[in-house]
DNA sequence: TATTGTTATACTCTATAACTATA
DNA sequence: TATAGTTATAGAGTATAACAATA
């Protein structure tokens, strides 16, 4: 079952070739490669994910996004500050309830998001390079199914750290 | 292509449903669930990975393992200290070259490793729960193939952080 | 002089809790 | 008083560089 474990003297050693282990290995690799790519755009993966989420759901409050992402509200501040300072994101004080600030992506932000799109396509190609079309489709279908089974939501990354 | 993206106002938004993205989502989830489980054994994922690696390749030096894991030697010290203090791992000064210390898993360490094995099996079941046998086999085969294509080695986790 | 392991230090990222302003 | 956002602070985890022992 093990690809190249050679002579393994440890009989009690846990199985390293499980799907769960491979998933975490490949996931970490994919996240690292993506981090390298977005770094070229001067973004961290959490920043990229947030930008994307705000674009998909404009106008929401910081608290709402924090809840959705499973992160403390205090963390949003720094992320948004960075994006706002670069003119990619904008806070707008809600006129009805001036405690809330609704978030929106600027035109510059949308332009960068388009770049991010191309980058994601290239990244996907890099990760699955070497698979033929059938394998690629099979893999994608299985991952989608698994993501649904585990209740993963499209724009929300578990942990929201290390990757988008 | 998107499972439940609802009305997505951002045309320029990058694709979130790529295999690479799903891989990183599911990988992060798998890593988190594994971390929860090994925490019950009072281990961090890096500690578990190191213990496993030493069991698979006993007698190697800290430098050799650090190189293999892609981590600075200084980091090995703390990890090994923790495992050695609990009697799971042992440093033995090399008699030929007393700069080197070769690492070995103790009997207690092997016992814990056996527990870790059972835990890994349960973890794997949890991650892939809901898939039928055919899907499970397909997924495993594809992940193994992808791991080989990307040059991932059995006991070496990319980043060696957050997961084993 | 070069190398192994160690220590000291600093940096990054994240979470917790206290604070303000609005309600 | 309760809530949204912010600030201050502390903690975990990691990397870099200096150090001591051995070769």
List keywords for this structure.
DNA-binding, homodimer, two-stranded antiparallel sheet, 164 residues, 6 helices
Structure description:
The structure is a homodimer of 164-residue chains. With 164 residues, chain A is mainly α. Helices cover 56% and strands 6% of the residues of chain A. Chain A has helices at residues 19-39, 45-56, 62-69, 73-85, 107-127, 133-149, and strands spanning 89-93, 101-105. Chain A has a two-stranded antiparallel ribbon with strand order 1-2. Chain A is globular and about 55 Å long. Mean pLDDT of chain A is 89; it is low at 1-12. The structure holds a DNA duplex (23 and 23 nucleotides).
Describe the secondary-structure layout.
2 copies of one chain form a homodimer.
Chain A: H1 19-39, H2 45-56, H3 62-69, H4 73-85, E1 89-93, E2 101-105, H5 107-127, H6 133-149
Antiparallel strand pairs in A: 1-2
Helix pairs in contact in A: 1-5, 2-4, 2-5, 3-4
Chain B binds a DNA duplex (23 and 23 nucleotides) through residues 44, 46, 61-63, 71-78, 97-101, 161.
